[in-house]
TrEMBL record:
Name assigned to this protein: Jacalin-type lectin domain-containing protein
GO cellular component terms attached to this protein's record: endoplasmic reticulum membrane
Provenance organism: Phytophthora citrophthora
Keyword list, A-Z: Glycosidase, Hydrolase
Superkingdom of this protein's organism: Eukaryota
UniProt feature coiled coil, ranges: none
Annotated GO MF terms: Glc3Man9GlcNAc2 oligosaccharide glucosidase activity
Length: 590
């Protein structure tokens, strides 16, 4: 069984996250004349705008990479704030305009993380009042009279297709197969269009409805989500902590709002018989209902400051229950005990089983606040393992570690902050450009170049797959030089496969080598030469444990061979740059 490790050390994992944050950064000058900086969620998925909670996740990670970038991104986010305090879900720059609703209120934690790094009280004085206006927007526009806040659209929650919302949609699946993309996800744009065409996005009027105006299930989505309410409630406490640095009276006001919101949650959302928080919603007939289905949102209340010891212990027990949330790779978005749980990303539906980075981060913060440092540390190690297995992704299979969705999703980089908080890494383990060289990043000596200069470059590439992967085929293309290197990976437990490739074939010669079962790559030779004033890989050769080999290109006077140590095999390649091949190195593991 071959284990493939993309990022084998905490320091390398930090680099893996940072390369995406840098690649996905956008800078410029707004139409108002202010500089802007934001991290779009992904290069290949979602719009190229600033998304509220994605941006907060990037800020939390960038605090450790470049504090100036983190601060500017925070200012950019708050520059989109509307006159009534709302910060939109998605913001388009340079105009700074956004859509009609907000998103998971993660802003207080982004601000707190910046202050933890800078201790800049002047920045708090500038930004805390703005964030307070944002939380007040939730309180004044989304409280229907019981002290909780409702969301008007699944996209506002961010955890959009969660089974926690099946009941509000009047879906009653007996398993994941009962709902597909067309059945559920297409309701989201339908609801968006309905709000716009019928109500002109006047949510005060929308929320004033006592019952649905028609039989359409898209008439409304009035849900009191556990995670949203937790973050609004505890967000006030975070602002209280920050305001204490400069104005204790203002801090008292924030703490009072925290206590009031938490009291409402404990009264309305805590089910003492089930020993868990439940999702509440206003049904189409105007009656309030609840659903006790357990999702990752059910773990967020560990952040609450007024839980009893019994309540806190009950949630911690759910976190560590292997039949619920304590999976090989944390934390599934749906409890394993639920019929709707599916660990694999299928039917194009998000949040129905796979684990996600930012929700991991909040659960870990809740564990730390609860004094469960050991459990939090183990969770971070397991999170580290899944990045070793597959790299940085939008989501992961909580059982196999296979990555799904958008590669390099920015808010998954919150893992870096978790490393720092748990003491897994410190300021001496900076990313490349601040101490980490190529040799630190690669688990073997370099092949093809003797330089050990800084490896931090957004044009680096990695060919790898996941834990339990097998190398099934090697494809090469080239002529005088190496033009393309490709590896077909398989999975020893399933029929899944992944074709990892770098470079272009064009009109090059091609060669291929099938790797038999039980056979490994044990040796790699590469030769370099100069082309267009740059170093290029002119030749590469792979040798298998059965003696078979494949090569492409032309040898030069500067060649290097890496032979895997006894009981190890080559499992992945890393190199640079852009679409060319001018450096290449290998990972070798047992």
């Amino acid at each position: 069984m071959v284990q493939t490790w993309i990022c084998p050390t905490y320091a390398a994992q930090q680099y893996c996250a940072y390369q995406y944050l840098v690649r996905q950064a956008n800078t410029g000058t707004s139409t108002a004349g202010d500089p802007y900086y934001f991290t779009q969620p992904s290069m290949f998925k979602y719009g190229a705008g600033q998304w509220l909670w994605d941006s907060c996740g990037a800020i939390i990670a960038n605090v450790h990479r470049d504090i100036d970038d983190a601060i500017l991104e925070f200012r950019t986010l708050m520059n989109s704030q509307t006159s009534n305090g709302m910060v939109p879900e998605e913001i388009n720059w340079p105009a700074g305009s956004g859509n009609a609703w907000s998103q998971m209120p993660t802003i207080p934690w982004a601000l707190q993380t910046i202050f933890n790094e800078t201790n800049d009280v002047s920045f708090l004085k500038e930004q805390v009042p703005k964030v307070a206006e944002y939380l007040d927007w939730w309180r004044t526009t989304r409280d229907l009279g019981d002290g909780l806040v409702v969301t008007v659209h699944p996209w506002e929650v961010g955890i959009d297709a969660s089974p926690a919302f099946d009941a509000p949609w009047h879906f009653s699946p007996s398993g994941i197969e009962a709902i597909d993309f067309a059945t559920l996800y297409l309701k989201f744009p339908e609801l968006k269009a309905y709000y716009s065409s019928t109500w002109s996005n006047n949510f005060t009027a929308v929320l004033a409805q006592t019952k649905a105006r028609s039989s359409l299930t898209a008439d409304w989505f009035f849900v009191q989500d556990i995670a949203i309410n937790t973050l609004v409630a505890v967000g006030w406490a975070v602002l209280g902590d920050l305001a204490t640095e400069y104005d204790t009276e203002t801090a008292k006001t924030y703490y009072a709002k925290n206590k009031a919101h938490e009291a409402a949650m404990l009264k309305r959302m805590w089910d003492s018989s089930l020993k868990r928080f439940v999702t509440t919603y206003k049904d189409q007939d105007g009656t309030w209902q609840s659903t006790s289905l357990q999702t990752v949102q059910s773990l967020f209340p560990l952040l609450l400051r007024s839980l009893t010891a019994t309540q806190r212990a009950a949630i911690v027990a759910d976190v560590t229950d292997e039949a619920k949330f304590w999976t090989e790779y944390p934390f599934p978005s749906v409890s394993k005990a639920e019929d709707t749980y599916t660990p694999k990303y299928v039917y194009n539906l998000l949040w129905r089983g796979p684990s996600w980075g930012f929700t991991n981060w909040f659960v870990i913060q809740g564990l730390l606040y609860s004094g469960e440092d050991s459990i939090a540390g183990t969770a971070v190690d397991r999170w580290s393992n899944v990045i070793n297995v597959s790299g940085v992704w939008e989501m992961w299979n909580p059982e196999t570690g296979i990555g799904y969705g958008a590669e390099g999703l920015g808010m998954s980089a919150t893992f870096v902050d978790a490393l720092y908080r748990l003491g897994k890494i410190n300021s001496t383990n900076e990313y490349a450009g601040n101490g980490i060289t190529v040799n630190d990043l690669w688990a073997s000596e370099q092949v093809g170049s003797s330089s050990s200069g800084n490896a931090y470059d957004d044009s680096w590439w990695v060919l790898s797959y996941g834990n339990y992967s097998t190398i099934d085929r090697i494809d090469l293309a080239g002529g005088t030089r190496v033009d393309q290197i490709a590896i077909l990976y398989g999975d020893s437990r399933s029929s899944d496969s992944y074709y990892a490739t770098h470079g272009d074939v064009g009109t090059s010669d091609t060669k291929t080598l099938t790797v038999p079962d039980g056979v490994d790559i044990t040796e790699v030779t590469a030769c370099t030469g100069s082309y267009l004033l740059s170093t290029r890989i002119f030749y590469i050769k792979f040798v298998l444990s059965n003696g078979d080999s494949v090569d492409i290109g032309t040898t030069t006077s500067s060649c290097s061979t890496f032979s895997a140590p006894t009981d190890q095999r080559v499992v992945a390649l890393v190199g640079r740059a852009g679409s060319a091949n001018n450096r290449v190195g290998v990972f070798a593991y047992t």
